Amino acid sequence: MPEFSGSTGPTPETHVIDFRAAEQLLAARDPRGAVKLLDKVIAAHPENTAARLLRARAFFAAAQLRPAELEFTIVLEREPDNAFAHFALARTYERSGRPEQAIRHFRLAAALDPQPEYVAAARFDT
């Protein structure tokens, strides 16, 4: 007969709710609140690339550039063809005063997905 512990710990559904709430917090310009929720999600699911990408965006919005850089890098290790992650990492490098690293990732983003914003940032004409 199965034994029920009555545990009220986080469930997979709780993590989905936290992820969605973090999206809303980021949209409402509360990146630090989003990071707090995502920390729990990532602690339970470190392989969740979507949560890492959202946390990277939240770190960037909170001007926490080093943690943003680390998270974008993890995303790109898992998804090297993620044009948005390249673009966002480039913006992070740009804000950190590292233009040589930024241009490389702007160009990778534009090559992967030639959106006008990516192509303009890539400055292929220079």
UniProtKB/TrEMBL annotation:
Transmembrane segments: none annotated. Keywords: Repeat, TPR repeat. Gene3D superfamilies: Tetratricopeptide repeat domain. It comes from the Bacteria. PROSITE patterns: TPR. The keyword Membrane does not apply. InterPro entries: TPR-like_helical_dom_sf (IPR011990), TPR_2 (IPR013105), TPR_rpt (IPR019734). Pfam families: TPR_19, TPR_2. This is Tetratricopeptide repeat protein. It comes from Streptomyces flaveus. The lineage of its organism: Bacteria, Bacillati, Actinomycetota, Actinomycetes, Kitasatosporales.
